[in-house]
Amino acid sequence: MPTFSAPDGTRLAYHASSDGPPLICLPGGPMRDSAYLGTLGGLTAHHDLIRLDLRGTGASEVPRDPASYRCDRLVDDVEALREHLGLDRMDLLAHSAGANLAALYTARHPHRVSRLALITPSVYAVGIRISAEDRLAVARLRGSEPWFGPAFTALEEITAGRATPDSWQAISPFAHARWDEAARAFDEADAKEKNAEAATAYAAEGAFDPAETRAALADFTSPVLVLAGEFDISGPPRAMAEYAELFPNAQLEIQPGAGHMPWLDDAERFLVAVGALLT
Predict the structure, then answer these.
(1) Coil, strand or helix at 127
(2) Which residue among 81, 143, 207, 233 has the highest number of C-beta atoms inside a 10 angstrom radius?
(3) What are the φ and ψ backbone dihedral angles of 44, each rounded to 5 degrees?
């Protein structure tokens, strides 16, 4: 497995899939082993997916300084990967919480990013507000599902600030187009593949300056894809449309019937959307 050295000496690992054009992939979680991205619905048939294991996750070393898990400090790790790969510019794809890192990297190194794909992105780095009603309105679209009642009640408790530890588990079906054994296995793996200490530090105070980041992204003229899931309560389409408007050259795609992992919900639609950006 190839590795490289971060600026602070931490050895970081990445996974290369093929000999095609490289696509740098940043995982979400936050701070989950990049293995969950898999082939991104078969994108490996067209591109060399370079999946970065963020420090302290997957095959990458645990850093000496836990404060280095903070999202803004991880930008230097992504830049070190680019230099290691010998890329003057790179195509960058990020999922969920990884989009915060991608946004900060793009804001700091805009001339190093050729094309940017943000897949059901988290919005902390850019300061978009997602209201309780935004999430509940999307959730109501699943009203015919057999699991809907308890899951929706739990979501109401969470959005009202009355969450219990069980509430978060109860809303898991909303993340998937189908609440089946594959979806359950995906969620069970999350606890094993995520570095909880790193996830806590990821968004620590000082990690984000939304006004500064938004100003920088407003000058980023390269092509951008913001891909939302129709059923994604984490990134409701209204908020994703607002995200796309931050860029001068962004395309918003709302994948029908998809949740938070659209490549798992409908790989063919996902590949068409991402392929349109990368080709």
Answers:
(1) coil
(2) 233
(3) -65, -15
DSSP codes joined into one string, 68-125: GGSHHHHHHHHHHHHHHHT-SSEEEEEETTHHHHHHHHHHH-GGGEEEEEEES---GG
Element (H, E) at 169: helix 165-170
- Rounded distance between C-alpha atoms, residue 276 and residue 250, angstroms: 12
pLDDT in tens, 2-33: 999 999 999 999 999 987 899 999 999 999 99
Q: What sign has the CA pseudo-torsion 24, 27, 28, 30?
A: negative
pLDDT at 47: 95
DSSP 262-279: HHHH-HHHHHHHHHHHH-
> Which residues, other chains included, contact 206 with Cβ-Cβ below 8 Å and sequence gap of 6+?
70, 72
Distance CA 137, CA 163 (A): 19
Which has the closest alpha carbon to 40: 195, 194, 227, 233? Answer: 227
Query: How far is 165 from 98, CA to CA, in rounded Å?
Result: 24
Give the integer Cα–Cα distance in Å for 123 and 18: 31
Residue 225, H or E segment? strand 224-229
**Which amino acid belongs to residue 48?**
D
**pTM across the whole model:** 0.97
pLDDT in tens, 152-169: 999 999 999 999 989 999
Burial of 108 (C-beta count, 10 Å sphere; 0-12/13-18/19+):
middle
